Amino acid sequence: MSYAGFTWKNVRRNTRRAILTMLSVALAVFVMVTLVSFVAQIDRNVNEASPLRLITRHAVSLTNFLPERYRAQIERIPGVVAVTELSWFGGIYIDEARTDFAQFACDPRTLFDVFTEVTIPPDQKEAFQRERTAAVIGRSKAEKHRLKIGDRITLRPRDIPVAAPLELTIRGIFEGTINNEAQLFFHREYLEEVMGRPGVAGTYWIRVDSVDSVSRVSEAIDALFQNTDAPTKTETERAFTMGFVSMLGDLKQLVATISSAIIFSLLLVTGNTMAMSVRERIREIAILTSLGFRRGTIFWLLVAEGLLITVSGGLLGCLSARLIFGALDLGAFSQGFFQQVTVTGPIIAAGLAVSAAVGIVSAGIPAYRAASVPVAEGLRYVG
Predict the structure, then answer these.
(1) What is the C-alpha to C-alpha distance for residues 240 and 55, in angstroms, rounded to an integer?
(2) Can you tell me the distance from the alpha carbon of 201 to that of 87, in angstroms, rounded to the nearest whole number?
(3) Which of 5, 25, 60, 371 is the 20 to 30 Å CA partner of 275?
(4) Could you give phi then psi for residue 87, rounded to 5 degrees?
(5) 3-state secondary structure of 152
(6) pLDDT digits (tens), the chain, 383 positions
(7) Which of 264, 354, 267, 261 is nearest to 314 (CA)?
């Protein structure tokens, strides 16, 4: 019998215990991989932020509006290339479950001057700018909801008091990053009309000419409106995004803590399993030693059993996470907060590495002790 066959036979010695241990490892690795994937997705969202974009909002609260007259004053600041208004709407499309994209009222004339990474055919851009009830939507969401140019959609208000639902016509489909394509834009004038409160904006998004201008322009904007009834806070897009992430707490520290607890629990579970398995076979190990097997060979045969169980469980956990998040409509589930969580190859490799490390440590200690038992003592052992 080969070493591989010998190891496989010993794993199957107590099938129920081996399967339960493997499933315990799979569940633990699944949770750990899920947490790491969420944090990695948040990091990707933050890294997508343009270093040349600033966001100006009300200094007191993001829910407070800013006067429309601020825009002209911001545009006159040296270093400012383009300014556009964005006001979050948050309406319901068909029903809550299918509202998986953010909606913003904007200035269609300057929107694409600020979001230069977004691409849209010129004729669609012109149609969007020309028609008061026109809207543009990201390609991924258009394909998901089977929307095409000319389709009409209705957005029912959820948190904003408006006189009637918004009746919009899709006039353009744009392409960009995953987060860009999870958005819909429509005319700010149309929102003001149904709200009955013209002349205000939720935030101003600003593109500057260089990274060197970021700090100077931010300070200039806030100083300009410091003593008004609507003071502002201007920050980079990255800092703005991190502000939302901070609402969830210190995720990286939380993930590190939970992952450490998971690994410790795995060591206890697999360590106990391997200790029981090895203790039941001390007499057999002594017989193998008496037949000429080296202690090092016996040690690695026992460790291989632990590795086979834990790595199999780790692989099951990693692949389950990848399949589940690949099929899960996370955008609808989180109401657009998370659009996609990808369990990448490096994350899977890390999960398998942790599984292997747990297998080596949990099996290595009892295996070393068992392999070191003298032959005479081992033959007298009664499990």
Answers:
(1) 7
(2) 6
(3) 5
(4) -125, 120
(5) strand
(6) 565 665 666 666 667 877 888 888 888 888 888 888 877 777 777 777 788 899 999 988 877 888 989 999 999 999 999 999 998 887 888 776 566 788 899 999 999 999 988 899 999 999 999 999 999 999 988 888 889 999 998 888 776 666 678 889 999 999 887 777 788 999 988 888 877 667 788 899 999 999 999 999 999 999 999 888 889 999 988 888 777 666 555 666 776 777 777 777 777 777 777 776 666 666 666 666 666 667 666 677 677 777 888 888 889 989 988 888 777 666 555 555 566 677 888 889 988 898 888 888 877 777 666 666 565 555 555 45
(7) 354
Query: What is the per-residue DSSP string for 325-364?
Result: HHHS-HHHHTTTS-------HHHHHHHHHHHHHHHHHHHH
Its pTM stands at 0.71
How many residues make up the chain in this entry?
Answer: 383
Three-state DSSP state, 145: coil
How far is it, in rounded angstroms, from Cα 125 to Cα 171?
Answer: 8
Domain ranges of the chain: 3-46+250-380, 65-229
Residue 132 phi/psi, 5-degree rounding, is -60, -40
Q: Are 210 and 79 in contact (CB under 8 A)?
A: yes
Provide CB contacts within 8 A for 216, sequence distance 6+: 79
144 vs 141: CA distance, rounded Å? 5
Q: In what order do the strands lie in the sheet with 92-93?
A: 92-93, 152-156, 166-174, 134-138, 183-187, 102-106, 80-88, 203-208, 53-58, 232-236
What is the three-class DSSP state of 171? Answer: strand
Give the residue among 179, 224, 186 at the shortest CA–CA distance from 56.
Answer: 224
Give the span between the Cα atoms of 111 and 118, in whole angstroms: 10
